[in-house]
Amino acid sequence: MKAVTPPPRVRCGAAGGVYKSLTPKRRPPAPRHEGGPVEIAHALLKLIAVVVATASKELSRGGGRARSGNSDPPALVFGDDITGLAVLRALGRRGVEVYGAGTQRKSVVHSRWYRPLPGEGIDETSDGERLAAYLRTLPFPKAVLFPCSDRWALAVASLPEDVADTYASTIAPLDVLRVLIDKGLFARAVAEHDVPAPRAVRVADAGDLDAVEDARKLLKRVVEMLTRLIQSMARRRAASDSGPGPGPRPGTGGV
């Protein structure tokens, strides 16, 4: 084992015979000041946390109600599917005063941004006159409409001019929407304008399917998948009716 050499010592004083180590002494910890960088950083973090918490409370108060000083027109979202829910969330997170319109509310009602429109609701429709009569009963001087289904889009696009001036929207004209929504009109339009698109076949009876080789193959695959699905469901039903199911597979831990 290698010997450790002690630190050098030097005689201090002419007659005292006192030895003092030249090893540097440890510095005492620096006194903490209230204005140090660490304390300032902690104070800033606490301030940021308070600001974020306050802003979150303001945004979530009243189910997504916009700030009282917001002069922007509210948004009316028509549609209950995932599209309507996504639009509701996107607008609410931006601080927009947003309402869920229509009587179908299975999905959007669970969003914290959801607010129902005052008065009675309206069922999904493609009738512009019916939608206009409903909008005239609402207490908004201005609003923006967001149709989130084909039928709602057709209704909004066919609103009378006086109602459309009050309730703005950003959708295509009615004749364009009809071409995009109707599959037969769409197939005819892409053929007339030479736009690349999947081959479309008008089917009036089973004989039309027999004339298309691809359709026969597709129909056969669909029947096979449905058959396997029905058989699998039948086996599960039989297993559940016969008593407790089998135990966990080895290595699964019962999860």
Task: Explain this structure.
- With 255 residues, the protein is α/β, with parallel strands linked by helices.
- It has a domain at 59-169: Rossmann fold (3-Layer(aba) Sandwich), CATH 3.40.50.
- It has 9 helices and 6 strands, in the order E-E-H-E-H-E-H-E-H-H-E-H-H-H-H.
- The protein has helices at residues 37-60, 82-93, 128-135, 150-157, 161-166, 174-181, 183-192, 206-210, 213-241; strands spanning 9-12, 18-21, 75-78, 98-101, 143-147, 167-169.
- The strands form 2 sheets. The chain has a 4-stranded parallel sheet.
- The longest helix has 29 residues, at 213-241.
- 16% of the residues are buried.
Q: How do the helices and strands line up, and which of them pair or pack?
A:
Elements: E1 9-12, E2 18-21, H1 37-60, E3 75-78, H2 82-93, E4 98-101, H3 128-135, E5 143-147, H4 150-157, H5 161-166, E6 167-169, H6 174-181, H7 183-192, H8 206-210, H9 213-241
Parallel strand pairs: 3-4, 3-5, 5-6
Antiparallel strand pairs: 1-2
Structural descriptors:
alpha/beta, four-stranded parallel beta sheet, 9 helices, 9% strand, two-stranded antiparallel ribbon, extended, Rossmann fold
N- to C-terminal distance: 57 Å
Total number of helical segments? 9
Shape from CA axes? extended
In total, the number of strands is 6
Strand content: 5-15%
Low-confidence segments, given as residue ranges, are 13-21, 58-68, 245-255
Q: Give me the secondary-structure category.
A: alpha/beta
**Overall radius of gyration:** 37 Å
CATH architecture of the domain at 59-169: 3-Layer(aba) Sandwich
**What summary fits the major beta sheet?**
4 strands, parallel
Q: In which range does the helix fraction lie?
A: 40-55%
What is the H/E order? EEHEHEHEHHEHHHH
